[in-house]
Amino acid sequence: MGINIIIIIIISLLPLFLLISILGGTDGVDNRCDFPSDFIFGSGTTAFQVEGAAKEDGRTPSIWDTFVQSGQQTGDTDVGCNQYHKYKEDVKLMADVGLEAYRFSISWSRLIPNGRGPLNPKGLEYYNNLINELLLHGIQPHITLYNYDLPQALEDEYGGWISPKIVEDFSAYAEVCFREFGDRVLYWTTVNEPNVFVLGGYDLGFLPPERCSFPFGRNKNCSKGNSTTEPYLAMHHSLLAHASAADLYRTKFKKDKQHGHIGISIYGISLAPSTNSKEDVHVAQIAKQFFYDWVLHPLMTGDYSNLMKKIVGSKLPIFTKDEANLVKGSYDFIGITYYGDMSCKYMPNNWSVEYRDVYADLQIQMGFLSITERSLTSAKSLKGVLQYLMQEFGNPPVIIYENGFETERNSSLQDVARVKYMMEHIQVVFDALRNGSNMNGYFTWSFIDVFELLTGYKTSYGLFYVDLDDPNRKRYSKFSAKWYSNFLKGKTSTSLDSDAATKLLFYS
Ligand SMILES: *[C@@H]1O[C@H](CO)[C@@H](O)[C@H](O)[C@H]1NC(C)=O
Ligand SMILES: *[C@@H]1O[C@H](CO)[C@@H](O)[C@H](O)[C@H]1NC(C)=O
Ligand SMILES: *[C@@H]1O[C@H](CO)[C@@H](O)[C@H](O)[C@H]1NC(C)=O
Ligand SMILES: *[C@@H]1O[C@H](CO)[C@@H](O)[C@H](O)[C@H]1NC(C)=O
Ligand SMILES: *[C@@H]1O[C@H](CO)[C@@H](O)[C@H](O)[C@H]1NC(C)=O
Question: Membrane-spanning regions, if any (predicted)?
Fold first, then answer.
């Protein structure tokens, strides 16, 4: 009898299964309603890139201010997009678009001007106001604690991230944030893109704090730094700072009072072989594993991977037993920033064995490697990144915290290409979710046009254009803002294929 009942149940459910599998096979996303309701859609910016008010209300310079002042980047960041004074207007725009969440970062040197010690009441007030304004409009705040903007005071005092002292100062800063804002904030990212900032800042030297050593600087003469050792130190201390802050959050705040999530964000490197040759394929595979393992392997296991150890050798710092315990499992989610592919090419090994940077370390072990600039290819490589995380790192909870399309800053407000890019990538996110990826959210970069890390004000990714010549820094909505708004409000009904964007343009 039992068996009969089971058979009847199976037979009666059969049409439902069939229906689900048919839909599953051909499903194009129409809009937000196709996603689970607890999946979070948002957009983001970071402090230095939008706040302005750089010299107001007690803020002191960060290493990014210094970078701009030294002429490495041009463009005014003292007023910038002026979100510091225009946050209410920006939150209103977010609410109009229908954003469910806003990802922003805290300027450490605004909140704690000397990096450690007394709080700046004006800084505290600003972030409280911003958080409250977001909540008033039903928008979840997602906070990043560190985004390329170390207080200059700490850089000057002990070299910032290359010193173990950073761990204590970062933890104290994080504790202030959890204590002051944690009653209202459920998502914390400790460090953004350590796998970019240690390479750009300490190996190639083209990002703040511009440390590097000859001959590794990219288009620059290195006056301070050591490309051979410092990238590994900076990463090691980033991991320890992250883990220490995460531990603090869990033991002191999350346990019974706050119920949020803490994670770290990494640059989602999709390293494609530049040709199908065996060598290129091999190099791309190893390089990719290297750049993920560097951050994720310690977080998962408490130690660097054997591959890392083999490639870096004695230059790789060692976790003590206590540190290993702290680092292992120190995340609730992994944030991913994703833009496009980079490609890897076989190159003859010609580096001196004595002094090597990170790239040369990779070359020495494998004999060859060249990583070229990123290119925007199809959304397929995002699929590759998500599958890689599922397969190699045990399918951790993931939030895509940045994804966006670059255009000339002054190009048309009818940014059809950006909408196509978003459609294609959102479709990939949907497919991966369907396929069992543990994905929890998707954020476009960027909400408004910001001061970009690599290009200043020359190019942009925003849903809104900001007129920098206007003293009011007026925002203008682009087609992408309208499209995203329709998507979020369940209004778009064309499947997200790339021709749809063009059609939508004519009906919008
Ligand atoms: C590096 O220094 C040399 C000699 O002083 C100079 O000729 C060259 O232009 C400098 N390169 C850069 C990128 O600053
Ligand atoms: C970098 O550090 C290594 C190890 O301490 C040292 O041997 C090397 O001379 C340093 N390089 C520079 C450019 O200071
Ligand atoms: C290695 O070879 C490449 C290509 O020939 C060249 O551009 C590069 O400067 C060489 N590097 C060193 C360290 O000699
Ligand atoms: C945008 O700026 C660039 C560089 O200043 C200029 O060459 C281009 O013509 C401008 N495009 C528009 C649409 O104004
Ligand atoms: C789903 O996952 C499998 C194996 O993990 C992979 O082969 C397949 O390509 C994935 N499909 C999508 C749409 O991500």
Answer: none
Which residue lies with its CA nearest to atom 5 of ligand 2? 229
Binding pocket residue ranges, ligand 4, CB within 6 Å: 408, 410-411
Q: What amino acid occupies position 174?
A: A
Find the ligand nearest to 219 CA.
Answer: 1
Q: pTM here?
A: 0.90
Of how many residues is the chain composed? 508
Nearest ligand to the CA of 413 is: 4
Ligand 1 pocket check: which of 214, 221, 222, 223 to mutate, most ligand atoms within 8 Å of Cβ?
221
Nearest CA to ligand 4 atom 13: 411
Residues facing 452 on adjacent strands: 456
| Nearest Cα residue to 201 out of 220, 182, 174 | 220
Angle separating helix axes 498-507 and 479-488, nearest 10 degrees: 100
151, two tokens = 């207080």
Q: What is the DSSP string of 431-490?
A: HHHHTT--EEEEEEE-SB---BTTTBTSEE--SEEE-TTSTT--EEE-HHHHHHHHHHTT
Residue 180 identity (one-letter amino acid): E
Return the DSSP state at 367.
S
Sign of the C-alpha dihedral computed for residues 236, 238, 240 and 243 taken in this order: negative
Residue type, 55: K
Is residue 72 predicted with pLDDT exceeding 60?
A: yes
Q: Give Cα separations from 192 to 128, 145, 338, 402 (angstroms).
A: 22, 8, 12, 11
Region class of 74: left (phi > 0), else alpha (psi between -120 and 50), else beta:
beta
Please name which ligand lies nearest the alpha carbon of 389.
5
Q: What is the atom index within ligand 5 of the atom nearest the CA of 383?
A: 14
> Which residue's CA is the nearest one to ligand 5's atom 14?
432
Please name the residue whose Cα sits nearest to atom 2 of ligand 3.
350
Q: Is 302 left (phi over 0), alpha (psi -120 to 50) or beta?
A: left
CA distance 263 to 273: 30
Report CA(364)–ligand 2 centroid distance (Å).
Answer: 18
State the pLDDT at residue 341.
82
Of ligand 3's listed atoms, the one at least distance from the Cα of 360 is 13
pLDDT tens for 208-247 read: 999 999 989 988 889 999 999 999 999 999 999 999 999 9
d(C-alpha 142, C-alpha 135), whole Å: 11
pLDDT tens figures, 327-384:
999 999 999 999 988 888 877 666 666 778 888 888 765 555 566 555 656 688 899 9
Active site residues: 193, 402
Q: Which residue's entry shows tokens 């469910």?
A: 100
Pairing verdict, β 475-477 and 464-466: antiparallel
Is the Cβ–Cβ distance between 55 and 195 less than 8 Å? no
Rg from Cα positions in the chain: 23
- Parallel, antiparallel or unpaired: strands 40-44 and 439-445: parallel
